[in-house]
Write a structure and sequence with these properties.
By secondary structure, the protein is an alpha/beta fold. It is 32% helix and 22% strand. It is built from 8 helices and 12 strands. It has helices at residues 14-26, 45-55, 63-67, 79-91, 94-101, 131-140, 218-227, 233-240, and strands spanning 3-7, 29-34, 58-59, 106-109, 112-115, 145-148, 155-159, 164-167, 171-173, 179-183, 198-203, 208-213. The strands form 2 sheets. It has a 6-stranded mixed sheet, covered by helices on one side. A 6-stranded mixed sheet has the order 4-5-6-10-7-8. Helix 7 (218-227) runs antiparallel to helix 8. The N and C termini lie far apart (37 Å). The structure holds zinc ion. Residues 9, 11, 37, 62, 64, 150, 152 line the site of zinc ion.
Length: 242
Amino acid sequence: MSKLAIISDIHANTVALDAVIADAKAHDATSFVCLGDIVGYGPKPSECVTRIQELNCVTVKGNHDLYAGDDFDLTNVNEEAKEAMLWTREKLSDVQKTWLSSLPYVRRLGRNSLVHATLDDPQSWGYVHNRFDASLQLKAQSTLICFCGHSHRPVAYEFDGESTNKLEDEVINIDYNNKYFINVGSVGQPRDGDPRPCYVIFDRTARTVTFRRIEYDIQATVAQIEASRLPNSLAQRLMEAS
Ligand code: ZN
């Protein structure tokens, strides 16, 4: 079976997305999965939607994809995200907005689940902050692996039937007797102090999930943000990975 690249939180960063697509293909990934937040914060929302559609990948909806719809009330969204989203809406076509808001919250992929935030309540956009949060998710999870994004911080947890453990390895060996909760990290706006895009390659034959951290031309995206009417704080945030 093929190798699958699983990406999330692109956030309208085409330079990072193109670097990830090239890296995945160079590592023999033959198909892609996208866990949402294609748009929001970044300078190239329309282009990122087009690229994800061209990849023909299985995609689920992120909160920023939901916010892109003109009728979504942004009252409770934080100021930076709101300002960026109002700008983003101007850049997207009506067809793209409709496509983004029509994406499903959860999908099955073989014996695995795909979701942007959490499986227990995908529309509440909750966060898994630690081992305790992960153990609650894993006990309720009926699938082998749940792949998610949302926090922009890559991490993997394993439940062996008794306890939940955080896995620190770059390559996770999947034991079919256990269950896994894997956050694939962010392509376009990492927040773990490392500005390099992150994603995973899922090799279903070897039963491994490999975290990939790659270089890209961050200054190109910074220049695009500065040339737009997006808040300059977003360029700073990209460089600090905060
Ligand atoms: Zn996001």
